[in-house]
Specification:
Shape: globular
Structural class: alpha/beta
Strand content: 5-15%
Order of helices and strands: EHEHHEHEHEEH
Number of helices: 6
Distance between the termini: 6 Å
Amino acid sequence: MSSLTDHEPFPVDGAAPHPDARASLRVLVLAGSARTGSVNARLATLVADLVSQAGAPADLATLGEFVMPPYDADAESDQGQPPGAVALRERIDAAQALIIASPEYNASVPGVLKNAVDWVSRFRPQPFKDKQTLLISASPSMVGGNRGLWALRIPLEHLGARVYPDMFSLAMAHQAFTEDGTLADPGLGERLGATIESFLALAEADTRYLCLRHRWYEFLGDRSDAPVTARAQD
Protein backbone atom coordinates (compact mmCIF):
# COMPACT_ATOMS: atom_id res chain seq x y z
CA MET A 1 0.00 0.00 0.00
CA SER A 2 1.37 3.37 -0.94
CA SER A 3 2.04 6.08 1.60
CA LEU A 4 -0.01 9.23 1.94
CA THR A 5 1.66 12.60 2.16
CA ASP A 6 0.71 15.20 4.72
CA HIS A 7 -0.88 17.29 1.94
CA GLU A 8 -3.24 14.66 0.53
CA PRO A 9 -6.92 15.32 1.29
CA PHE A 10 -9.36 13.05 3.09
CA PRO A 11 -11.34 10.82 0.70
CA VAL A 12 -14.16 12.85 -0.85
CA ASP A 13 -16.72 10.20 0.08
CA GLY A 14 -14.96 9.18 3.29
CA ALA A 15 -18.14 8.99 5.36
CA ALA A 16 -19.98 6.71 2.98
CA PRO A 17 -20.13 3.08 4.11
CA HIS A 18 -18.30 0.59 1.97
CA PRO A 19 -20.58 -2.38 1.23
CA ASP A 20 -17.82 -4.94 1.72
CA ALA A 21 -16.03 -3.34 4.68
CA ARG A 22 -17.47 -5.58 7.41
CA ALA A 23 -17.27 -8.73 5.25
CA SER A 24 -13.55 -8.18 4.71
CA LEU A 25 -12.87 -7.55 8.39
CA ARG A 26 -11.32 -10.84 9.54
CA VAL A 27 -11.27 -11.24 13.34
CA LEU A 28 -9.07 -13.73 15.19
CA VAL A 29 -10.82 -14.83 18.40
CA LEU A 30 -8.22 -16.51 20.60
CA ALA A 31 -9.09 -18.47 23.74
CA GLY A 32 -6.11 -18.10 26.07
CA SER A 33 -6.67 -21.52 27.63
CA ALA A 34 -6.23 -25.07 26.37
CA ARG A 35 -8.06 -26.71 29.27
CA THR A 36 -10.97 -29.01 28.43
CA GLY A 37 -14.19 -27.30 29.44
CA SER A 38 -12.51 -23.91 29.81
CA VAL A 39 -15.02 -21.13 30.44
CA ASN A 40 -12.81 -18.82 28.38
CA ALA A 41 -13.00 -21.22 25.45
CA ARG A 42 -16.79 -21.17 25.81
CA LEU A 43 -16.79 -17.38 25.92
CA ALA A 44 -14.52 -17.23 22.86
CA THR A 45 -16.88 -19.55 20.97
CA LEU A 46 -19.84 -17.34 21.84
CA VAL A 47 -17.96 -14.20 20.81
CA ALA A 48 -16.89 -15.77 17.51
CA ASP A 49 -20.57 -16.48 16.81
CA LEU A 50 -21.48 -12.86 17.63
CA VAL A 51 -18.72 -11.60 15.34
CA SER A 52 -20.04 -13.78 12.51
CA GLN A 53 -23.61 -12.63 13.14
CA ALA A 54 -22.38 -9.04 12.90
CA GLY A 55 -21.11 -9.75 9.39
CA ALA A 56 -17.36 -10.20 9.96
CA PRO A 57 -15.53 -13.49 9.34
CA ALA A 58 -14.36 -14.98 12.65
CA ASP A 59 -11.30 -17.21 13.00
CA LEU A 60 -11.70 -19.13 16.29
CA ALA A 61 -8.58 -20.61 17.89
CA THR A 62 -7.36 -21.84 21.25
CA LEU A 63 -3.91 -21.36 22.70
CA GLY A 64 -3.51 -25.13 22.78
CA GLU A 65 -3.14 -25.09 19.00
CA PHE A 66 0.13 -23.16 19.32
CA VAL A 67 2.56 -25.13 21.46
CA MET A 68 5.65 -23.15 22.48
CA PRO A 69 8.44 -23.76 24.98
CA PRO A 70 9.28 -21.07 27.54
CA TYR A 71 10.89 -18.16 25.76
CA ASP A 72 14.68 -18.51 25.65
CA ALA A 73 16.83 -16.09 23.69
CA ASP A 74 19.56 -18.71 23.25
CA ALA A 75 17.05 -21.20 21.82
CA GLU A 76 15.71 -18.51 19.51
CA SER A 77 19.21 -17.72 18.30
CA ASP A 78 20.14 -21.38 17.78
CA GLN A 79 16.87 -22.86 16.54
CA GLY A 80 14.71 -19.95 15.45
CA GLN A 81 11.06 -19.50 16.24
CA PRO A 82 9.10 -22.60 17.32
CA PRO A 83 6.38 -23.79 14.91
CA GLY A 84 3.65 -22.77 17.35
CA ALA A 85 4.85 -19.17 17.37
CA VAL A 86 5.10 -19.16 13.58
CA ALA A 87 1.54 -20.47 13.27
CA LEU A 88 0.13 -17.94 15.74
CA ARG A 89 1.96 -15.08 14.03
CA GLU A 90 0.43 -16.14 10.71
CA ARG A 91 -3.08 -16.19 12.15
CA ILE A 92 -2.59 -12.74 13.71
CA ASP A 93 -1.18 -11.33 10.47
CA ALA A 94 -4.16 -12.70 8.53
CA ALA A 95 -6.62 -10.83 10.77
CA GLN A 96 -7.48 -7.14 10.88
CA ALA A 97 -8.63 -7.41 14.50
CA LEU A 98 -7.91 -9.60 17.50
CA ILE A 99 -10.09 -10.67 20.43
CA ILE A 100 -8.44 -12.51 23.33
CA ALA A 101 -10.41 -14.40 25.98
CA SER A 102 -7.97 -14.71 28.86
CA PRO A 103 -8.15 -16.57 32.15
CA GLU A 104 -6.85 -14.95 35.32
CA TYR A 105 -4.07 -16.65 37.28
CA ASN A 106 -3.24 -15.19 40.69
CA ALA A 107 -4.75 -11.83 39.73
CA SER A 108 -2.60 -11.60 36.60
CA VAL A 109 -2.15 -12.88 33.05
CA PRO A 110 -1.54 -16.64 32.63
CA GLY A 111 2.12 -17.47 32.03
CA VAL A 112 1.38 -19.54 28.93
CA LEU A 113 -0.41 -16.61 27.29
CA LYS A 114 2.32 -14.12 28.25
CA ASN A 115 4.88 -16.60 26.87
CA ALA A 116 3.00 -16.69 23.54
CA VAL A 117 2.97 -12.89 23.40
CA ASP A 118 6.72 -12.84 24.09
CA TRP A 119 7.51 -15.34 21.33
CA VAL A 120 5.28 -13.68 18.72
CA SER A 121 6.63 -10.23 19.55
CA ARG A 122 10.05 -11.33 18.28
CA PHE A 123 8.91 -11.40 14.64
CA ARG A 124 9.56 -8.47 12.35
CA PRO A 125 7.39 -6.75 11.33
CA GLN A 126 6.01 -6.92 14.85
CA PRO A 127 2.57 -8.60 14.57
CA PHE A 128 0.74 -6.85 17.41
CA LYS A 129 1.65 -3.38 16.17
CA ASP A 130 -1.53 -1.38 15.41
CA LYS A 131 -3.73 -4.47 15.71
CA GLN A 132 -7.21 -3.52 16.94
CA THR A 133 -7.59 -5.70 20.04
CA LEU A 134 -10.44 -6.45 22.44
CA LEU A 135 -9.83 -8.19 25.77
CA ILE A 136 -12.47 -10.38 27.42
CA SER A 137 -12.35 -12.85 30.29
CA ALA A 138 -14.40 -15.41 32.16
CA SER A 139 -13.84 -16.76 35.65
CA PRO A 140 -15.75 -18.51 38.44
CA SER A 141 -14.71 -15.60 40.66
CA MET A 142 -16.84 -12.55 41.40
CA VAL A 143 -14.53 -10.27 39.38
CA GLY A 144 -14.65 -12.42 36.26
CA GLY A 145 -10.92 -12.38 35.57
CA ASN A 146 -10.83 -8.60 35.13
CA ARG A 147 -7.55 -8.17 37.02
CA GLY A 148 -5.84 -10.46 34.54
CA LEU A 149 -7.03 -8.29 31.65
CA TRP A 150 -5.47 -5.19 33.17
CA ALA A 151 -2.19 -7.10 33.39
CA LEU A 152 -2.53 -8.28 29.78
CA ARG A 153 -3.05 -4.74 28.50
CA ILE A 154 0.47 -3.75 29.58
CA PRO A 155 2.55 -5.89 27.17
CA LEU A 156 0.04 -5.55 24.33
CA GLU A 157 -0.09 -1.77 24.54
CA HIS A 158 3.69 -1.64 24.85
CA LEU A 159 3.88 -3.62 21.61
CA GLY A 160 1.62 -1.10 19.88
CA ALA A 161 -1.69 -2.96 19.89
CA ARG A 162 -4.70 -0.66 19.88
CA VAL A 163 -6.38 -2.20 22.90
CA TYR A 164 -10.06 -1.27 23.05
CA PRO A 165 -10.87 0.80 26.16
CA ASP A 166 -13.84 -1.32 27.24
CA MET A 167 -13.24 -4.87 28.43
CA PHE A 168 -15.79 -7.59 29.17
CA SER A 169 -15.41 -9.87 32.19
CA LEU A 170 -17.87 -12.66 32.94
CA ALA A 171 -18.15 -13.39 36.65
CA MET A 172 -19.41 -16.73 38.04
CA ALA A 173 -18.75 -18.08 34.57
CA HIS A 174 -19.26 -21.72 35.54
CA GLN A 175 -22.95 -20.86 36.01
CA ALA A 176 -23.30 -18.19 33.33
CA PHE A 177 -23.90 -20.23 30.17
CA THR A 178 -27.05 -21.87 28.90
CA GLU A 179 -27.02 -25.28 27.24
CA ASP A 180 -26.87 -23.66 23.80
CA GLY A 181 -23.77 -21.62 24.73
CA THR A 182 -25.41 -18.22 25.17
CA LEU A 183 -25.41 -16.18 28.39
CA ALA A 184 -28.19 -16.93 30.85
CA ASP A 185 -28.40 -13.30 31.96
CA PRO A 186 -30.10 -11.28 29.17
CA GLY A 187 -28.54 -8.04 30.41
CA LEU A 188 -25.02 -9.47 30.21
CA GLY A 189 -25.80 -10.86 26.77
CA GLU A 190 -26.90 -7.42 25.57
CA ARG A 191 -23.81 -5.80 27.05
CA LEU A 192 -21.51 -8.34 25.40
CA GLY A 193 -23.24 -7.90 22.05
CA ALA A 194 -23.00 -4.12 22.29
CA THR A 195 -19.30 -4.32 23.19
CA ILE A 196 -18.60 -6.58 20.20
CA GLU A 197 -20.54 -4.32 17.83
CA SER A 198 -18.78 -1.17 19.03
CA PHE A 199 -15.38 -2.84 18.73
CA LEU A 200 -16.12 -4.06 15.20
CA ALA A 201 -17.28 -0.59 14.19
CA LEU A 202 -13.97 0.86 15.35
CA ALA A 203 -11.94 -1.86 13.64
CA GLU A 204 -13.98 -1.39 10.47
CA ALA A 205 -13.31 2.37 10.53
CA ASP A 206 -9.60 1.64 10.91
CA THR A 207 -9.66 -0.37 7.68
CA ARG A 208 -11.92 2.05 5.80
CA TYR A 209 -10.42 5.44 6.60
CA LEU A 210 -7.00 5.29 5.01
CA CYS A 211 -6.40 8.91 5.92
CA LEU A 212 -5.61 7.90 9.50
CA ARG A 213 -1.95 8.78 10.07
CA HIS A 214 0.27 8.36 13.07
CA ARG A 215 3.72 7.48 14.25
CA TRP A 216 4.34 4.57 16.57
CA TYR A 217 7.14 4.38 19.13
CA GLU A 218 8.09 1.06 20.68
CA PHE A 219 9.38 2.73 23.84
CA LEU A 220 10.05 6.19 25.18
CA GLY A 221 13.17 7.62 23.65
CA ASP A 222 12.75 5.85 20.30
CA ARG A 223 13.28 8.39 17.55
CA SER A 224 12.22 6.44 14.50
CA ASP A 225 12.67 8.19 11.16
CA ALA A 226 10.10 5.94 9.50
CA PRO A 227 7.65 7.94 7.40
CA VAL A 228 4.06 8.43 8.49
CA THR A 229 2.03 6.12 6.28
CA ALA A 230 -1.61 5.49 5.53
CA ARG A 231 -1.33 2.27 7.48
CA ALA A 232 1.33 1.77 10.12
CA GLN A 233 2.46 -1.57 8.70
CA ASP A 234 2.97 -1.64 4.94
